[in-house]
Task: inverse folding
């Protein structure tokens, strides 16, 4: 049997975490975890600048350029530095999680980076969605129907002119913070490694994303409705505050993703007509305000959180607000690689469930 024939026959179980800040996908491959993280930025444009250049003047290491994703006769720029080439699309509604050109372009870019273009892969996908979406039974069913209508089946597309063919056999939905619980409790083979007592004990997960804030509590293998809920109070609020402050002080318009990237820099600086500006005070103010909103939401549901045997923080927002969150909840733990913890856990669960 040739290598290509082996790839055709292989069935791959992956996770998909279509976050508003970054799109994550993970595969527990025979060689170990493969993790893909792509900024959730999509635009219409091209990366070919012809012969435009400055030659050797000021040349540094080249910045990453977006992926060029094409399907059904249309093409998009996806991922890193899209704003250098075109205006990005900024959809923040939950319908964006079920269909649309942005979601398709991000999915294809992620699958290309995860699996490559060799062979015809057969995929099963565990998709993580916000608590708010899955808690509403009708919305959850509608989202699953919409996803199944176009995700299941054969896909042909190109990424950076490389042709990819794959088929999706099955998809299932799971709450994004459940992925953090699995990342904490399962190994790469999908086996529980925390002991029976921790499977029975109440474990709380706070997932601070870009556009979502999810609280998820598990006890005895089941979600606890009283302590579970969601809101759109993630790092987007901080990005909105920073864009407003930068607009007011410097007259510069930033996209939400540009503002978010600026906040994550150690020394955030911005070039303006008045020279280089230090925007760190504005970024700190925005983060403090966002953190206050996050803590207020948590306190309404959980109080001091001491009723939980384990309190886990996950998501890109948890990594950015770690000091502020742990000051309020010193018994909490920010999971390692908090940005990808949900996707990693869902991939471990996929390895368990699809088999």
Result:
């Amino acid at each position: 049997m040739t290598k290509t024939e082996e790839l055709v026959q292989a069935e791959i179980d992956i996770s998909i975490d279509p976050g508003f800040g970054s799109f994550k996908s993970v595969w527990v491959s025979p060689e170990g975890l493969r993790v893909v993280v792509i900024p959730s930025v999509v635009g219409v444009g091209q990366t070919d600048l012809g012969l435009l250049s400055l030659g050797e003047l000021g040349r540094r290491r080249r910045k990453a350029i977006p992926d060029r994703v094409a399907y059904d006769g249309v093409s998009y720029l996806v991922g890193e530095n899209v704003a250098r080439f075109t205006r990005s699309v900024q959809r923040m509604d939950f319908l964006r999680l079920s269909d649309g050109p942005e979601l398709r372009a991000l999915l294809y870019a992620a699958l290309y980076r995860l699996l490559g273009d060799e062979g015809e892969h057969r995929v099963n996908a565990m998709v993580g969605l916000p608590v708010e979406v899955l808690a509403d039974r009708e919305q959850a069913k509608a989202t699953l129907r919409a996803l199944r209508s176009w995700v299941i089946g054969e896909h042909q597309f190109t990424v950076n002119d490389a042709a990819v063919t794959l088929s999706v056999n099955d998809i299932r939905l799971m709450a994004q913070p459940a992925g953090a619980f699995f990342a904490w409790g399962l190994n790469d083979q999908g086996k529980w490694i925390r002991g029976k007592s921790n499977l029975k004990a109440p474990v709380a997960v706070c997932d601070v994303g870009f556009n979502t804030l999810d609280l998820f509590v598990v006890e005895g293998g089941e979600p606890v409705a009283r302590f579970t809920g969601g809101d759109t109070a993630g790092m987007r609020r901080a990005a909105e505050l920073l864009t407003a402050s930068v607009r007011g002080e410097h007259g510069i318009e930033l996209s939400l993703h540009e503002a978010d990237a600026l906040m994550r820099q150690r020394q955030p600086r911005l070039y303006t007509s008045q020279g280089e500006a230090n925007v760190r005070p504005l970024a700190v103010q925005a983060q403090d305000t966002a953190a206050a909103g996050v803590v207020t939401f948590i306190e309404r549901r959980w109080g001091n959180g001491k009723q939980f045997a384990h309190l886990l923080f996950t998501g890109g927002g948890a990594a950015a607000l770690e000091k502020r969150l742990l000051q309020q909840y010193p018994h909490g733990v920010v999971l390692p690689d908090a940005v990808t913890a949900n996707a990693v856990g869902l991939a471990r669960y996929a390895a368990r469930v699809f088999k």
Remarks:
- Confidence is low (pLDDT under 50) at residues 3-8.
- Residues 280-302 form the longest helix (23 residues).
- The chain has twelve helices and 18 strands.
- The radius of gyration is 21 Å.
